[in-house]
Amino acid sequence: MGSEGRILIRASGTEPLIRVMVEGKEADLVESVAELLANLVKSEFS
């Protein structure tokens, strides 16, 4: 994402899950990065 956005991956403080948050200017890029990261988290914790 570089200087065009940000990514945050963290454990929820109230639920047993990992939160993946992606922000940026290009909606298509944000969506694809979020999906890729969510799938990676799922594969590592399943």
Can you put this structure into words, describing what you see?
- The structure is a single chain.
- The chain has 46 residues and is of the alpha+beta class.
- The chain has one domain (2-45).
- Helix content is 41%, strand content 30%.
- It has one helix and two strands; from the N terminus they run ββα.
- The protein has one helix at 27-45; strands at residues 5-11, 18-24.
- The chain has a two-stranded antiparallel ribbon.
- The mean pLDDT is 94.
How is this structure best summarized?
The chain is α+β, with helices and mostly antiparallel strands. 41% of the residues lie in helices and 30% in strands.
For the structure shown, list the relevant keywords.
46 residues; alpha+beta; two-stranded antiparallel sheet; 1 helix; 2 strands; 41% helix; 30% strand
